[in-house]
Amino acid sequence: MPPLPPAFYAQDVEEAARALIGVDLTVDGVGGTIVETEAYDVADPASHSFAGVSARNAAMFGAVGHAYVYRIYGLHHCLNIVCGSPGSAVLIRAIEPRHGLPRMQERRGIDRPLRQLCAGPGRLCAALAIDLALDGAQLNAPPFRLITPERHAPIVTGPRIGITKATDRPRRFCMQDSPWLSRPVSNSLAASQHN
DNA sequence: GACCGGATGTACT
DNA sequence: GTACATCCGGTCG
Questions:
Q1: Is strand B less than 7 A from the beta carbon of A162?
Q2: Where are the alpha helices (DSSP H) in A35-135?
Q3: A40 touches strand B (CB under 7 A)
Q4: Pair A64, A10: CB distance under 8 Å
């Protein structure tokens, strides 16, 4: 159960987004297995880094292996992992909850269906108590912990969610048949592939 | 300095 | 399926 090596974060952002599927992610011991990611980079009109460096997206242009956390729609947070070339990051969209379920339920509401605990970028940030205080934080140090998966599960790709630009690019990566996704992968555009 | 719209989630109908 | 909460960065004046 080794942590992700520093070199992991240096690889191309699309490869990193694929390789992050199956990784165990915890914040202060609370978290689970990453099952859904999306890749973004500077050449991408849908990326926050597309327009260049700013106060908000500075972490995207910083060292790899750090977190880029931002607030969206005024109330939610989203967690990205800075990977590859400057201005690139992987959005973590869903995890399978495995560690610290009571604490997640406490944060998200005890009567909420387990399936919806971490299914969505805003939901998982709420469950793991991720907010702007963790923007720019190192991922190979507390409170973060990322563990290399023992074996890679089949991965399905599809178009990204909730964006209006560059929607044709299949840069969303999901663990095949996972019940913990924010949304199923649309059949017509899905392409199955292995690591 | 104002305005716009977003990598969303929830509570309704 | 639709409304709405609620903030900030980017853009244009």
A1: yes
A2: 101-108, 121-127
A3: yes
A4: yes
pLDDT tens profile A107-139: 998 888 999 999 999 999 999 999 999 999 999
Tell me which residue of A194, A192, A185, A188 sits closest to A37, measured CA to CA: A185
d(CA A15, CA A88): 12
Specify the nucleotide whose C1' lies closest to residue A44 (CA).
B7
pLDDT per position as a tens digit, A42-101: 999 899 999 899 989 999 999 999 999 999 998 999 999 999 999 999 999 999 999 999
Contacts by residues A99-103 (CB-CB < 8 Å, ≥ 24 positions apart): A99/A26, A99/A29, A99/A30, A99/A31, A99/A32, A100/A26, A100/A29, A100/A30, A100/A31, A103/A30
Residue bearing tokens 């991965």? A155
In degrees, rounded to 5, the angle at the alpha carbon of residue A96 between the alpha carbons of residues A119 and A137 is 80
